[in-house]
Design goal:
heterodimer; A: mainly alpha; two-stranded parallel sheet; 2 strands; B: about 625 residues; Dipeptide-binding Protein, domain 3; D-Maltodextrin-Binding Protein, domain 2; IPC_Synthase-Related (chain A); Inositol phosphorylceramide synthase (chain A); transmembrane helix (chain A); Aur1/Ipt1 (chain A); transmembrane (chain A)
């Protein structure tokens, strides 16, 4: 089942990316990219390595994390539930099978696309500053997110009130998605919402590059907003997680801008 | 300066003025001191009285990913407690953490969960006997200690036949008085199977190891059995003694042989035990398995079980199964430290089974083993149901666990914490390999005694048994109906049952098996924390739960509401469900609690409410 989903994700993203590249990046930039990719690669190499290392550590931590969380983690599920009440259920009143299908697709395919496309788009810019800052922001998001995952043990609304979310439980209708997401994260890691923080990071960058990519900005914002809503609509996250995710995004973008300036060596 | 006229001769000297002043001061000071000490005493009396505080409890259970019914039941229990002014929060722990918190560390207020296996009242002994209150494991996690109740438990263990039935009935009457835990319901078990691959799924209960033997013997071409299991724990740990990683020991039951097995009917309509062709009485609960036969001889202390071990059985590594292994197993399960260290560590899953065995007097020579039993015949036969462990593998596991840099609790032996992968048993299947959270694979053990020509017992017919781990009931159903698996070994959760009935009706080659309940959901109290030790409190909480309504709301009707935690066969008529719990009638109707009546009940029991309507207790 996992392979089925993987193939589907690769296929869908594999179609969306070239379409997006053609629409937003443009032939001219692609031509320059073909000539300059080696030097750009050298410039951004170090940060690329950092991101890969961070992703690798995250993968390892997915196995070992629970043991560490057991020792040092604080259980916050109930606190979130008490603070928020059943606010997340507001989406249930507008739920419909079409909306569920839309948000499920966004949660998996839209999110994957949203994370990968900017990498290509910014690599296609002559000044690699945005590409390097994006890599740094991704790395920071994952690293800080990991620290929270170890320290905070919290389960999302779908684990606390599955019957009240029955209308939008994507795993009920399409259980294969759980196989996919299971590889990426554990159900006790809802705080902060990395879906939110990474999507908002991309949206902020899209706004910053609105001159270079004017048509991408509104598209990125719409997709990012959809991802953020989908995390709550589908019962994965509390509003608190989303708020924390937005704060994390802002912080990581600011930090990446401070750490990666216009120096040539990233 | 006004004051009492001085009685001293006033000679106008400075001295007399000073002494006048000092006397007045002294009088004033004394007065003040007297007044102050009385005031201080008043303050001390007032302040040092500990007040009653509003009661706040935590209910521990599994999250929806672990078991959807548990969290739904828990939310209903929480609603009930909140309705009577008790502040209740819910703690969600993954399966192994949950069992560790509740059974090993006794770190809970209330929990909602299910008992591993409760098909015969004998389990009540270890569940509720006072001497087990401090032990880790399924023996008395509640910490219930009542001497009169102990006597009743011992009576039912000592007796047999009708006498035992009466003893059990008396025990259950006492149970509903004390409500050490509140039984909620016994859930029916549903599994989706491919009827085109084997058509004798119904012969034995698919929740028991026997359900996976002799498959296809009645027709069907099944060589590789592929199962879908929603619980990942067997892919992490295959240790029959690890209480956090076992549910009912389905797979360890296929890897290890007990001396006797308890065949259970596969379907609800088939009430009688399916007969095993060889040996044993036709209506007996226990049938010889690794034991060729046994004899029971009663005496004044209980009796002796003389067991004849089957010849030439071997463990998966080729070593022979000897009476020494049997003797070792019983000694080991009673104390995994084997006497070392001073702290006795019994197996947390087999305590009740081996408790009546007087291990110091076991006599194992030749092919016969004499087990002295301090109990009646049913208790003796129950002792035969434990997995026989190879001494050459397990003896060294009596050592204390050593984890560098971590403080390990006294009495934690390797035996109870090791993963035991690969598992070496003598059972019909042997371990091949596993991938954590993905699959576990077993293969037929070709030297198993059930495959001998002269032995007529169900044996492993399939060559390979691959258990695929899939965390959701919905995808497990899809996998079976697609033909990628043959059976869902874990029972399906209630919320999918109705749609699976429809699916099975319209899909070729799949069938929905309905099997009798083998366990029960309950709310467990931790007696070690106030006010759960107060029987009034527990009895009223029992009356706050409308079991019939919960069965409809949470289980879609696929469970039987309970007053006592035993099967219908053992439930005394006076305690049978008759639309309501006769011993703890619901304080309200149709799931709605009558707040006023409930609060009155608490107040009549000696509890009080504060001005905000919160229940107060001294903690």
């Amino acid at each position: 089942m996992l392979t089925d989903v993987l193939i589907r994700v690769v296929a869908v993203v594999g179609i969306l990316l070239p379409v997006a590249v053609a629409t937003f990046v443009g032939r001219r930039r692609l031509a320059t990219l073909q000539m300059e990719w080696r030097s750009r690669f050298r410039e951004s190499g170090p940060l690329l390595v950092v991101l890969l290392v961070v992703l690798g550590i995250n993968r390892v931590m997915r196995q070992e994390g629970p043991t560490i969380s057991d020792a040092i983690g604080i259980q916050l599920t109930w606190l979130f539930y008490e603070l928020e009440g059943e606010f997340v259920l507001v989406f249930q009143s507008v739920a419909s099978p079409e909306l569920t299908a839309y948000f499920s697709a966004i949660y998996v395919y839209g999110y994957a696309f949203l994370l990968i496309f900017p990498g290509i788009a910014y690599f296609a810019l002559s000044n690699t500053i945005y590409f390097r800052q994006l890599l740094a922001a991704y790395s920071l998001n994952y690293t800080i997110g990991l620290v929270f995952y170890l320290v905070v043990i919290a389960l999302g609304p779908r684990n606390v009130m599955p019957d009240l979310l029955a209308g939008t439980m994507v795993y009920d209708a399409s259980p294969e998605y759980h196989h996919f997401t299971r590889q990426l994260n554990s159900s006790t890691n809802v705080f902060p919402s990395l879906h939110t923080s990474l999507s908002v990071t991309v949206a902020i960058f899209a706004y910053r590059t609105r001159e270079q990519y004017p048509r991408w900005t509104p598209v990125a914002v719409v997709i990012a907003l959809s991802v953020v809503i989908s995390t709550m609509y589908l019962g994965f996250h509390w509003v608190i997680d989303v708020v924390a995710g937005i704060a994390l995004a802002a912080g990581c973008v600011a930090l990446s801008m401070a750490l990666v300036d216009s120096r040539n060596a990233g | 300066m006004s004051g009492p006229p001085s009685t001293e001769p006033s000679d106008g000297s400075v001295d007399s003025l000073e002494s006048e002043t000092s006397r007045r001061t002294m009088l004033a000071t004394t007065g003040l001191a007297v007044a102050t000490s009385g005031c201080l005493r008043h303050v001390r009396s007032a302040v040092n009285r500990d007040g009653l505080e509003p009661l706040s409890v935590t209910i521990t259970t599994l999250p929806s990913d672990g078991d959807r019914e548990s969290i739904r039941l828990t939310r209903r229990v929480r609603d009930a407690l909140e309705a009577v002014g008790i502040d209740a929060s819910i703690e969600l722990l993954a399966s192994d953490e949950f069992l560790r918190a509740v059974l090993v560390n006794h770190d809970f207020d209330l929990y909602v969960g299910w008992y591993p296996e409760a098909t015969e009242p004998a389990f009540l002994y270890e569940a509720l006997h006072s001497t087990y209150a401090d032990e880790p494991g399924w023996q008395n996690p509640f910490g219930f200690t009542d001497l009169a109740f102990d006597d009743l438990l011992e009576m039912q263990r000592r007796t047999d036949g009708d006498e035992r039935r009466d003893a059990v009935a008396e025990t259950l009457e006492a149970f509903v008085t004390h409500q050490p835990f509140v039984p909620i319901c016994a859930p029916e078990e549903y599994r989706l199977v491919r009827s085109d691959r084997a058509n004798d799924w119904r012969r034995f209960h698919p929740g028991t190891p026997l359900g996976y033997l002799d498959l296809g013997a009645g027709g069907g071409e099944i060589e590789r059995l592929r199962a879908v299991h929603t619980d990942p724990r067997p892919s992490w740990n295959l240790n029959p003694l690890s209480v956090e990683y076992r549910n009912r020991g389905l797979f360890t039951g296929l890897l290890y042989d007990p001396l006797a097995v308890t065949p259970a009917a596969g379907t609800v309509d088939d009430e009688g035990d399916p007969p095993l062709a060889d040996g044993g009485k036709a209506d007996a609960r226990y049938h010889p398995w690794l034991a060729e036969s046994w004899e029971w001889a009663e005496n004044e202390d209980g009796g002796t079980l003389t067991v004849e071990l089957r010849d030439d059985c071997r463990f998966h590594d080729g070593e022979p199964v000897t009476p020494a292994d049997v003797e070792f197993t019983y000694r080991f399960l009673v104390d995994t430290t084997l006497g070392g260290d001073g702290v006795s560590t019994p197996s947390p899953r087999h305590r009740g089974h081996v408790a009546p065995v007087v291990v110091d007097e076991i006599d194992a020579d030749g092919a016969r083993i004499e087990l002295p039993i301090a109990g009646g015949e049913p208790a003796a036969e129950r002792a035969l149901a434990v997995p026989i462990l190879p001494e050459h593998v397990w003896r060294e596991r009596s050592a204390s666990t050593d984890v560098t840099g971590v403080q390990v609790a006294d009495g934690t032996t390797d035996a109870v914490v090791l993963d035991n992968v690969p598992a070496i048993g003598s059972g019909p299947f042997e371990f091949v390999d596993r991938n954590e959270r993905e699959y576990v694979t077993f293969q037929r053990y070709d030297d198993h005694f059930t495959l001998r020509n002269d032995v007529d017992l169900p044996g492993p017919t399939v060559e390979e048994f691959r258990v695929r781990i899939d965390p959701r009931s919905t995808s497990a159903i899809e996998i079976v109906s697609n033909g990628d698996a043959d059976v869902t070994t874990d029972p399906l959760e209630s919320y999918v049952v109705d749609e699976t009935v429809a699916l099975a009706a319209e899909t070729e080659g799949v069938e929905l098996l309905e099997s009798p309940a083998r366990t029960f959901y309950h709310v467990g109290f931790n007696f070690r924390k106030a006010p759960f030790g107060n029987p009034h409190f527990r009895r009223i909480v029992a009356r706050l739960l409308d079991e019939a309504w919960l069965v409809d709301d949470v289980f879609d009707g696929h469970a039987r509401p309970l007053t006592v935690p035993v099967t219908e066969e053992w439930t005394p008529d006076a305690l049978a469900w008759d639309g309501d719990d006769p011993a703890a009638p619901f304080l309200g109707s149709d799931g709605e609690i009558d707040d006023v009546a409930a609060r009155d009940a608490f107040e009549s029991a000696g509890f009080s409410y504060d001005a905000d309507g919160r229940l107060r207790v001294r903690r």
